[in-house]
């Protein structure tokens, strides 16, 4: 089966500036992939290459088997939906009018627009002028225009920027629905904590290079950061617990009834086994594995990049 998107040894330079450097990435239908990285890491450049707005300096980009910047690029782009990081719409148009405008550009049926506005929570504001919309509402309207025509590929640049928690949840529910229908969703974000459970894979960019890609479990194996254990114990039994686990754990914090420990992932099972033998003094155990933010910091340190 032809991959939905492939980048093979893709580089993009602007004079002496290297925006992307030999990036290889594959993304398939029915998955959600997050592009993460600091400002200037190359996320937006990568999206522009997929959209066919720019060409690579070296390497090849294929979308649905075609060069998006080639002679069939327009045909490919009809199957893409794109939400830019900063959306700007004509303030005098209503939400309904604006979606109709974009639907005509895509030769998509206008009758689907009401359902799209409902999906992004803008039914009640559909006939209001866009100039009266809040930033979050304009962001949701941007997502709505990206959904026109039921695209097979969604490129979303910071899709939850400016949204409240309920609206963010609604965006991720929409993304999950699209993935369930077989669409590929490629999103760029700084919100590493919130996307950890919302995506299938993560591609980490740093200074134009792809430093890691995979699901969160794979990235944790790549960056063996200590697991944090928070223990609640019977009063004045912390030393007894420490004596049992000191060979594998480092104390982060301690008081008469609590212990915070850092444990190397390779010795996590040893520590759990030792704690199991102390059930009579241990009242609660919380295990905190490193999240995407910690993994990114680790992989972008001088020795990790």
Strand content: 25-35%
Low-confidence spans: pLDDT under 50, at least 5 residues?
Answer: none
**SS field, number of helical segments:** 11
Largest sheet: 6 strands, mixed
The succession of helices and strands, N to C, reads: EEEHEHEHHHEHEHEEHEHEEHEH
Strand order of the largest sheet: 5-6-7-3-8-9
Terminal residue distance: 33 Å
Rg, rounded, reads 24 Å
- Helix proportion: 25-40%
Broad structural category: alpha/beta
- The total of beta strands comes to 13
Residue-averaged pLDDT: 90
Shape: globular
Topology:
Elements: E1 5-14, E2 17-27, E3 32-36, H1 43-51, E4 58-63, H2 73-77, E5 80-83, H3 95-105, H4 113-119, H5 135-146, E6 153-157, H6 165-180, E7 184-189, H7 192-195, E8 201-206, E9 209-214, H8 216-222, E10 227-233, H9 238-245, E11 249-255, E12 258-263, H10 268-276, E13 282-288, H11 292-299
Parallel strand pairs: 3-7, 3-8, 5-6, 6-7
Antiparallel strand pairs: 1-2, 1-4, 8-9, 10-12, 10-13, 11-12
Structure description:
- This protein is α/β, with parallel strands linked by helices.
- The protein has helices at 43-51, 73-77, 95-105, 113-119, 135-146, 165-180, 192-195, 216-222, 238-245, 268-276, 292-299, and strands spanning 5-14, 17-27, 32-36, 58-63, 80-83, 153-157, 184-189, 201-206, 209-214, 227-233, 249-255, 258-263, 282-288.
- Strand 11 (249-255) and strand 12 (258-263) form a beta hairpin.
- The longest helix is centred in the middle third of the chain and has 16 residues, at 165-180.
- The protein is globular, with a radius of gyration of 24 Å.
- The mean pLDDT is 90.
């Amino acid at each position: 089966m032809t991959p939905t998107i492939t980048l093979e040894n893709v580089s993009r330079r602007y004079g002496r500036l290297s925006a992307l450097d030999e990036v290889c990435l594959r993304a398939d239908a029915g998955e959600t992939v997050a592009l993460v990285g600091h400002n200037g890491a190359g996320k937006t450049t990568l999206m522009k290459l997929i959209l066919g707005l720019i060409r690579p300096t070296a390497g090849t980009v294929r979308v649905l088997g075609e060069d998006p910047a080639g002679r069939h690029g327009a045909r490919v782009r009809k199957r893409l939906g794109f939400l830019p990081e900063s959306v700007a719409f004509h303030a005098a148009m209503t939400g309904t009018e604006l979606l109709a405008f974009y639907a005509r550009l895509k030769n998509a049926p206008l009758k689907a627009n009401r359902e799209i506005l409902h999906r992004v929570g803008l039914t009640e504001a559909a006939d209001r002028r866009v100039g009266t919309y809040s930033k979050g509402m304009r962001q949701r309207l941007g997502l709505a225009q990206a959904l026109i025509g039921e695209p097979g590929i969604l490129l979303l640049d910071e899709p939850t920027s400016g949204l409240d928690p309920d609206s963010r949840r609604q965006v991720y529910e929409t993304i999950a629905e699209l993935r369930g229908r077989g669409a590929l969703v490629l999103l760029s974000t700084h919100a590493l904590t919130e996307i950890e459970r919302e995506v299938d894979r993560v591609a980490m960019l740093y200074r134009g290079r792809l430093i890691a890609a995979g699901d969160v479990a794979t990235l944790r194996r790549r960056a063996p950061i200590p697991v944090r254990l928070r223990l609640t114990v019977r009063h004045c039994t912390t030393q007894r617990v420490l004596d049992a686990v000191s060979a594998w754990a480092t104390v982060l914090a301690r008081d008469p009834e609590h212990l915070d420990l850092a444990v190397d992932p390779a010795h996590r099972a040893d520590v759990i086994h030792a704690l199991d033998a102390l059930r009579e003094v241990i009242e609660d155990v919380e295990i905190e594995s490193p999240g995407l933010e910690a993994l990114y910091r680790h992989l972008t340190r001088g020795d990790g990049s």
